[in-house]
Amino acid sequence: MHILEIIAKKRDGAALSAAEITFFVDGYTRGAVPDYQAAALLMAIYLQGMDGQETAALTAAMAGSGQQLDLSDLPQALDKHSTGGVGDKTSLIVVPILVAAGVPVCKMSGRGLGHTGGTLDKLEAIAGLSVALSPEQMLAQVHSVGACLAGQTETLAPADKKLYALRDATATVACLPLIVSSILSKKLAGGAPSFLFDVKVGSGALMKTQVEALALAEALVAGSTANGRRAVALVTDMSQPLGRTIGNALEVKEALELLVSPESAEPRLLELCLRLAAEGISLAQGSSVEAGREKAESSLKSGAARDKFQAIIAAQGGNLALGLPEAPTVVPVTTSVAGTIQAMETQALGELVVRLGGGRATKDAQIDPAVGLELHVAVGQRVEAGQTLAFVHARNPEAAEQAAATARAAISMTPAPQEAPPLIHQIVKLRV
């Protein structure tokens, strides 16, 4: 077997065998296959595609490139993944709900990507909290507390980290088989027998159309099943920010407030978290979705989910008693006309927070956890002239005023009534 033969085979549109895919992944991870040959194969895959069997084999090979956690003694364990959105703080809420309902969660989270926020960045707004857990620490915490929220380690799916960097440099990121294998390889390495996927669609998501989002959801579930895992994927709305806040400390605060007082939460955020938790509990425990919903609601009402959140944070060194960072400048965004909120340019709102310092314009940029946007309206809501649409939280008045102008332009209004978009578009299930 030779890498040139594998490149030529895929270049000409033929399907690769599992052995050929494993040969490539193993060789590239070890350095036996150089970047230029790996780049050639990635481009061939980008142009020619991969079928389901190839994608499953690529996923398994990437997961097998390093250490894999053993959660066999926790058959109800689950891992959650979101494809990323603006204001998406669901992991901070859903994970403690799941744990309180008896579903252990070993979750490897990510950093912000472009205009979308990252769970690790949000968590690091909490004083003292560490997301740099070793595989041994991750396992120990799942057993002792019920969950961990950690970053990918050097030893878990190292092929993914190396291949993703090459994809980023060769314009081959937007390729469905490569996206699926990247996501799933980390999930397989995490060891959970069940996966819960939240695939965002809309102006603030990576997937802009229903067709793209559904294809990814179906591929994630099929790839999970092919590798012996149970999975469910929800295609959910990202045509407007999720919840009332965008920005790391602001989102942590909103998540905690929801866990403490769910009756006061932004309705769409609360409903999505309950639906995700219900599906996750049903998947992991083999119950009905209705029974999962009852458990999720009970864990919120009783305060058990709040207690689990605090226990997870404390286990990772976080100290909520020290408070969360606050921006020194807060400026309102008002409207001069009455009407109904018609739409939001959600990606523009996410990019606004990045420019304030709440995200990374470059890989090594430092994040300001205090800055962000606090929304007071949603699509379909009636507003009057002079009403406040949002508040900008910024480091200085100049940045705040610029951001306020951008936010005002990103929120469009209409004189006519406007329906809010559906929250959940589709649910994809295929269990083993």
Give me a quick take on this structure.
By secondary structure, the protein is an alpha/beta fold. The protein has 3 domains: 3-49, Up-down Bundle (Transferase, Pyrimidine Nucleoside Phosphorylase, Chain A, domain 3); 78-153 and 164-321 and 424-429, Nucleoside phosphorylase/phosphoribosyltransferase catalytic domain (Pyrimidine Nucleoside Phosphorylase, Chain A, domain 2, 3-Layer(aba) Sandwich); 329-414, Aldehyde Oxidoreductase, domain 3. Helices cover 47% and strands 16% of the residues.
Structure description:
- The protein is an alpha/beta fold.
- It folds into 3 domains: 3-49, Up-down Bundle (Transferase, Pyrimidine Nucleoside Phosphorylase, Chain A, domain 3), CATH 1.20.970; 78-153 and 164-321 and 424-429, Nucleoside phosphorylase/phosphoribosyltransferase catalytic domain (Pyrimidine Nucleoside Phosphorylase, Chain A, domain 2, 3-Layer(aba) Sandwich), CATH 3.40.1030; 329-414, Pyrimidine nucleoside phosphorylase-like, C-terminal domain (Aldehyde Oxidoreductase, domain 3, Alpha-Beta Complex).
- 47% of the residues lie in helices and 16% in strands.
- The chain contains 16 helices and 13 strands.
- The chain has helices at 3-11, 18-30, 35-48, 52-63, 90-100, 119-123, 135-144, 158-169, 176-190, 210-226, 248-260, 267-285, 289-302, 304-315, 346-358, 397-410, and strands at residues 78-82, 105-109, 147-151, 194-201, 230-237, 245-246, 329-334, 339-344, 372-375, 382-383, 388-394, 411-414, 424-429.
- Strands 1-4-5-13 form a 4-stranded mixed beta sheet, with helices on both faces.
- Helix 10 links the parallel strand 4 and strand 5.
- Helix 5 crosses helix 14 (304-315).
- The longest helix is centred in the middle third of the chain and has 19 residues, at 267-285.
- It starts with a helix and ends with a strand.
- The relative contact order is 0.14.
- The mean pLDDT is 95.
